Amino acid sequence: MSQAIKLWDIHGGIHPAENKEQSSQKPIRQAVLPKKLYLPLQQHIGSPSELSVKVGDKVLKGQRIAEANGFISASLHAPTSGTVIAIENRAIPHPSGLTAETLILETDGEETWCEREIIEDYRHTDPKVLLNHIRNHGITGMGGAGFPTSVKLTSKDDDHIHTLIINGAECEPYITADHLLMRERADQIIVGIGILGHILKPRRCIIGVEDNKMDAVEALKASIESHPNTLPFEVIVAAIPTKYPSGGEKQLIQILTGKEVPHGGIPADLGIVCQNVGTVAAVSKAVLHGEPLISRITTVTGNAVADRGNFETLIGTPLSDLLYQCALDEDDLHRLIMGGPMMGFSLQSTDLPVIKTTNCILAATEAEFPNPAQAQDCIRCGMCAEACPAELLPQQLYWFSRAKEFDKAKHFNLFDCIECGACSFVCPSHIPLVQYFRFAKGGIRAEEQAHIKSDRAKLRFEARQERLAKEEAEKEARRKARADAAAKAKAEKEQTTAQTETTASENADDDKKAAIAAAVARAKTKKGADASAPSVDLKALKVESSQARAAYLKAQRTLDAAKEAGELTPEQISEQETEIAKLKTAYEESKAKMDAARSGGTSPTAPATSSAPGPDLKALKVASSQARAAHLKAQRALESAKEAGELSDDETKAQEAEVAKLLTAYEDAKKALDDAKSGNSERPGDTPSTSTSENISEAQPTVDVKALKVASSQARAAYLKAQRALDTAKEAGELSDEEITAQEADVAKLQTAYETAKKALDDAKNGVATQPSQPTQVTETTSEAPATKTLDQKYKEMKVQASQARAAAKQAQKAVDEAKEAGQAAEEIKALEDTLAEAVQSYEKLNAKKLVLQEKVKLQKEAPATKTPELSQASEPNIQTASDNKSPEEVVNADDIDPAQKAKELKVAASQTKAAWRKLERELTAAQEAGDETSALETQVAEAKAKYDQANEAKTAAMDALKG
């Protein structure tokens, strides 16, 4: 049913030349089927659709080829049957001229449909099912920017839609697509209105049509009369005055209802939903015929085409094919516009496709659309404000946009501008106002995005600071727990030490008593007592059992404390548990001996070689085990603290000194035990005979074990110090590959020197003679060694100090850079820069000293060797020149080299080949990441690896032979 309603006027508006009769004289025609269709995935507002097919797939007409990606998105369907031949980025019809992912479909001309989903009885279908059906069929707005229809029809719970407005105004000049649709296919529109009415449940529907299309008005009224059961609500066809831009959504709502959409609001806030007539017809075809949005009516007009009119065009059709069908005269073509002359945009190519929002292609001649006049200064006439349908102040917005004062432009409601172009049309100065407004909108959106990114970055920064604070608190808690555990262990150690001292005092008294008892026993023996049944020393057995029990319990407590503090690895725990098991077994054996002696069993007899008791092997063994456990525990604690970075340099040195003391104590205890086992320790009353002493003196010279121990400790300290310095320099990235190789060779030499000193010390402890066959010659040969070694050591130490100074300078530079990036105060930055200057100056001084020492060492090595007395066959060759310029193969095959020297040289050769192999591996990895050719590098890496394997095998064999 149709009746007249009251109409309202809108502010402003203009009356440009309509130019509609050129394309409205002929009925709607079918456009040609092109050979290829170009289908951009971005044809609507919101997220682009997501592809569901791939290159080479054959598709049918109406088949979904891209899914909606998100709430505000729309699906895409194949306009005809064919094959997907490419998916690539191509230019799309958009004012920006940007590219988007585009599917290229090669048509087969068969027009084979896929299986279609049809809803015949929509009146008894759930509205949510209808909305989902519309979404799946890719329906978008066909009169504006292409907003997904299903989203626009989804109302909130608090929205009470009472009016449905159908936009048939089509106020833009030249365009007649909606006019022909209403005139020839009014039934589709009315059925579509019924479907939307079933979804929204409005009280009435108003179709707004400009009064220059009265034939369309009559056609719609006739269709309403012929569908009395389709429309269970009031439907009114209103002929509104012809005025541009009465077809704008907000303007049409104001004309038909007298209500204005509030700033920042939408029509649904007023209980109104507005849809274009083309969109309503597409909904009808999707529901009743299962036909997705694969074509649309497009107006082709302008004086550069001879056959103007409206065409049912497949989505994706190239404009060149459509213009060819309309007999385009390329010589007369001056401007090609998509859309109308007021809100359309110019195209630079005819290779662009028709998309879902393409309602008009305007091919204009130069006489029809001359070049715009040169823009002049604004004369403040106010005509733009009079023409603006949104009642804005275009003049002020222009000044703000031109000056980039985006905040002020936004405050003057810039986003209420519909970009209709009425202000530019009436401007006597020919200022392109709409272009300035679009520029300002883009700037505001960019600033908002920047603020959003800044806020997100701030949140991430705060979260990171909170996480770091939490980690620091946890680290502090762990440090405190370790300190508490260490204090507890120290207290227990002090308590145990006090108990041990008390026990030792008691044992001293017991030793005196035992000595007296032994003297009494010897006296009895001299008087003819029975030597086969000596008395049992219960007191000594008791002391032995008590010491074994104390050692066992102390080790058990130490292990428990270490477990609670979490200081040990599983391997270390297993090792200590094994040691505890041994101590427990020793305690049980000593207790069994004491119990047997108490019950009258046989006790061990005194040694036959002496009437005085021998050394207490069990006590020495316990003392050695305790010293070893203390050393290992201190060493592990030091390593854990280093890894956690909890110690300063002074603390580290102090703990290293403590560990060295514990190591010395352990070595002394082990030596005492070894001497007792080998019978070297002196016993009370044992005095070697003069002849024996003389024989020993003649057989071998006296060995200074203490001097050898000092030499071994110094060699070990030098080796460990060099190894730590090399590791530090590697972590700081301060050394080149050649410097790393050289320092690794130096470390290998120091390690060999330490192993040689250690072996000499062990031989001395075991009573093995180590004196050279010709002392005089050796003394002469090695008399110059201290000076060379001292100079070489000075150079190495200075090299390490220079590396450390360089690392400190890098740290200072990093601190300055971070302070500048964080925007710290100038005073703080100045202080950091002063620190940097001092660090650089210190590095330069140390580096200069290093270079001087390096040159001295080089000159000393290049100088001719001092002539030494001729060595006999038993003498060793000069170690410094034995391996000069020799390959690993030459070292292996050299039979005249001493085994120790040979092992040392092979060790250096293995380090050098390993460094060369690792360097080539790094170069190969860098080349692979850069995508370069790597075949030659791979061959070099394989060869270097083979050389390293050979050198390593030779080194291992030499070391095994040396140990054997």
Molecular structure report:
With 964 residues, the chain is α/β, with parallel strands linked by helices. Helix content is 55%, strand content 9%. Residues 529-535, 601-613, 680-702, 769-789 and 864-886 have low confidence and may be disordered.
Described by strand count, sense and barrel closure, the largest sheet is:
6 strands, mixed
How many strands appear in the DSSP assignment? Answer: 17
Helix content: 40-55%
The whole-angstrom Rg is: 50 Å
**CATH homologous superfamily identity of the domain at 115-364:** NADH-ubiquinone oxidoreductase 51kDa subunit
Class from helix and strand fractions? alpha/beta
According to CATH, what is the topology of the domain at 115-364? Rossmann fold
List segments where confidence is low: pLDDT < 50 over at least 5 consecutive residues.
Answer: 529-535, 601-613, 680-702, 769-789, 864-886
* Ends apart, CA distance between termini: 114 Å
- Tell me which CATH architecture of the domain at 115-364 applies here: 3-Layer(aba) Sandwich
Q: What is the class of the domain at 115-364 in the CATH system?
A: Alpha Beta
Strand order, sheet with most strands: 1-14-13-17-15-16
Beta fraction: 5-15%
Helical segment tally? 26
Q: Round the mean pLDDT to the nearest integer and report it.
A: 80
Subunit structure: The complex is composed of six subunits: RnfA, RnfB, RnfC, RnfD, RnfE and RnfG.
Pfam family, one: Fer4_7
Biased composition (Polar residues): 687-700, 768-785, 869-885
Biased composition (Basic and acidic residues): 470-495, 584-596, 639-659
